[in-house]
Design goal:
5 helices, 2 domains, Alpha-Beta Plaits, 26% helix, globular, alpha+beta, 166 residues
């Protein structure tokens, strides 16, 4: 398997915009639903956020263009779950679409931290991994990327919710 890691400042991405506004916070993004070409419903998880940081996120979301709903779902331990419904426009595309188009699959969860969207993806073919990186370029500034050969065992034993590289 080829493991593709990349970090992107994703233009037109609501959660990446949130991460740029609050770079000290770490957001775990388990996924969401693309409701249309520029409409999304997404769950984000604030990692180790206190009440003041939760309020900052909700205030920030409330002031963002295109956010139709921002709802605190639950606080469990050191995790805060927030649901967002938004229209994003103009939009450069979804990283998840680029991954799917290139026959990739997510390893672990997307992490937003320090204004960078961090991904770890598996691909079977080198051509798909390389094309994925090319497809990301119009979406924003790629801060880092790597493609490496790894064992499929990585899927079973890897800890993919760790802090992304600096």
């Amino acid at each position: 398997m080829l493991q593709v890691k990349f970090g992107i400042v994703h233009e037109g991405c609501l959660v990446n915009e949130l991460s740029r506004a609050l770079p000290e916070l770490r957001f775990i993004c388990p996924g969401g639903f693309v409701l249309g070409p520029s409409s999304v419903e997404e769950i984000i998880i604030l990692d180790h956020a206190d009440e003041k940081e939760r309020e900052s996120v909700l205030d920030q979301l409330g002031g963002m263009v295109g956010v139709a709903e921002a709802e605190l779902l639950e606080c469990v331990g050191d995790k805060t779950f927030i649901r967002i419904v938004a229209t994003v426009s103009p939009h450069t595309g979804f990283c998840s679409d680029a991954v799917a188009r290139n026959h990739g699959f997510r390893i672990g969860m997307e992490i937003q931290h320090g204004g960078i969207e961090h991904w770890e993806v598996g691909c079977i073919r080198a051509s798909d991994a390389q094309q994925l990186i090319e497809d990301l370029k119009p979406m924003g500034e790629i801060k880092y990327h790597s493609i490496s050969q790894v064992s499929w065992r990585v899927l079973l034993e890897g800890d993919h919710a760790q802090a992304p590289p600096n």
